[in-house]
Amino acid sequence: MSEHKQPDLARRELLGRGAAMAAAGVTLAPGVMLYGVAQAKPADEPVSSKVRWGMLVDTTKCNSGCNACVEACDKEHGLGNEQHSRDGQRTQYIRKVELRHKFTGATHSLPVMCQHCETPPCVDVCPTGASFKRADGIVLVDRHICIGCRYCMMACPYKARSFVHEALTDQRPHTPRGKGCVESCTMCVHRVDEGREPACVEACAADGSRAIIFGDLNDPNSEIAQRVKTYASSEIRADLGLNTGVRYQGI
Amino acid sequence: MKRLLQLLSMVVLALTLSAPALAGEGGRTPLPTIPAAKGDQCVEDTADMRRNHMKYLKHHRDETMRQGIRTEKYSLKQCLECHVPAEGSMAAGGKESEGHFCVNCHVYAGVTLDCFECHATKPETTAQFHPLVSPAAMKAERPDSNGLLNRLVGVTENKTGVAHE
Predict the structure, then answer these.
(1) For position A212, which CATH number holds?
(2) CA distances (Å), A142 to each of A11, A164, A183, in order?
(3) Residue A167 in domain
């Protein structure tokens, strides 16, 4: 198992940098800060393994009835335009999961999407090399060479992937989708490459919950790296040792 | 009589299929309709693009997909930006009848085009989200370029609603 790359900062230094960052951040609304999360890389530059994109979901802030992230995702990627598929067949990149502890009765609501593992099982099993991980940790399907065998759907412990069962029209230019291919959350790679945040993160912040934050886990100055360093966070099915890029706080 | 009817229906079918090709120049040789593009100059010479556009596109596709290189030159999205009118301008300028730049030529040359099974066939009109199912796609299949486009990319009306697992 590979070791986690965590920022190595003394507490004093961290607080100092935190204060400097707060000054550099943009205040969207009282209590809502926008950190300089991602600087856009030049368009002609390949992505680098110095960056590890990740998301941190604070389940204590995620409201049970709220579906803002799912709706934003559907809108961003043009999902839900299947005409003939049953509900169980429709593509979903994110789904909301409600958890209840049988003994204590504690309930949690959390979004589950592709967890962007460091060692993704979907990549291991793909017979054509269509399922792959970019240098910056984003796990994608290259639909140009996907043959639709769905091994990756079987291998994924998070049930994160969907298969397109029918011919589609009116795709969005940045998210090509078509019949016979497997697809999943792309961590809004088209936005990330432009230096923007994924649509779900944006929607969650706009909604006021700010339960999902996005950033570079390898950058000790990023908000996400500081949060995972300061507070206890966990992976879903941490026992599998996949070192997911999506982490959860409060479960 | 039956034979004559068969022959007639074949002629009608042939005419319908070749309508966009015949609609080109008035000369004896049928030519594909090439809708006007934005700008004066393509990313390479016209002759080079005619011969090599697929190589440029494929090379760029792998770089974008695997390495996140998102330069605009040779990007399919950028081709469509210039060569295909967005939805709004089609309705306003009546350009729809001219058909789709890529499709017209591929139909003329008889070369299958796989890009649009997944990729958007037109650029987005604005930064706003356009409706998931556009009015154009809701219309019944006609032997115009939309119909041809659908036929070419294998999008057929599945009336039975049978989905396969």
Answers:
(1) 3.30.70.20
(2) 42, 14, 9
(3) yes
